[in-house]
Write a structure and sequence with these properties.
The protein is an alpha/beta fold and 245 residues long. The protein has helices at 15-26, 38-45, 63-71, 97-119, 144-164, 182-190, 195-201, 210-221, and strands at 6-10, 30-35, 54-57, 77-82, 126-131, 169-176, 232-235. α1 crosses α8 (210-221), α3 (63-71) packs parallel to α4 and α4 (97-119) packs parallel to α5 (144-164).
Length: 245
């Protein structure tokens, strides 16, 4: 449809990205998903409601790949979700420089590349939603590289929001706490995360669901949040509000 708004979601093949894409599709958006794993993304796209969706194989930190995804919006790009990411825990004393570089490239450079490519295709304004993390707001042993990248996203959001507000482009971020995803399940299996220790720190005493993060991403990325820009919103079951261990 000529007037159908479009959204680009990076890392849309699974987890939070897939849930965000599905939420926008349910509200009538044409969803362009970008993911390195095209087979997984192709399967995911078939579950989205509505029409006009596209699956794009690509690197979220590649201007060419992200630009190609944004072009598929055909002039109707309303929202860009910078969600692609990965996590690799490890002690900082011997954390490999290659892993550090990859962490910053995917999370922080990818967010900046996405912002540049999307904003260039939003002549009448739009919304960018980036994925930060509680790891970017608080210290987590063994997650320093990930936390540094996510803290960088928070700084990027504040800078772009103030710079691009006159262009009608809002920029916000979400900082999820513990959410049930394929990645968190793997961390639990391998003992990287101690489930009970995390639950003891969450006042609501449960992990979040990708669909709950998706509702926040939908709100921030649509005119529902028309006067909100430059913020990082925790969605964490009360973790960041609790002042005692």
């Amino acid at each position: 449809m000529a007037d159908q708004p479009a959204v680009v979601v990076t890392g849309a093949g699974q987890g939070i990205g897939a849930a965000i894409a599905a939420r926008y599709a349910r509200d009538g958006y044409a969803v362009i998903g970008l993911d390195l794993d095209i087979d997984r993304l192709d399967r995911t796209v078939t579950t989205w409601e509505g029409s006009g969706h596209h699956a794009v194989q690509g690197d979220a930190a590649s201007p060419d790949d992200v630009g190609r995804a944004c072009d598929l919006a055909d002039g109707r790009l309303a929202t860009f979700i910078a969600n692609a990411g990965f996590a690799k825990a490890g002690p900082s004393t011997d954390y490999a420089l290659a892993d550090w570089d990859a962490m910053l490239r995917v999370h922080l450079t990818g967010a900046m590349v996405g912002a540049q490519q999307a904003s260039a295709r939003m002549p009448d304004g739009g919304a960018l939603v980036m994925m930060s993390s509680l790891n970017g707001l608080f210290g987590f042993p063994g997650r320093t590289a990930y936390g540094a990248a996510k803290a960088g996203v928070a700084g990027l959001v504040r800078g772009l929001a103030t710079e691009w507000a006159p262009r009608g482009i809002r920029v916000n971020a979400i900082a999820p706490g513990s959410v049930v995803t394929e990645l968190s399940k793997d961390f639990l299996r391998r003992g990287v995360i101690n489930e009970q220790e995390f639950l003891d720190r969450i006042p609501m005493n449960r992990f979040g669901e990708p669909s709950e993060v998706a509702e926040l991403a939908f709100f921030l990325g649509t005119p529902l949040a028309s006067y909100i820009t430059g913020v990082v919103v925790p969605i964490d079951g009360g973790w960041s509000a609790q002042g005692i261990a």
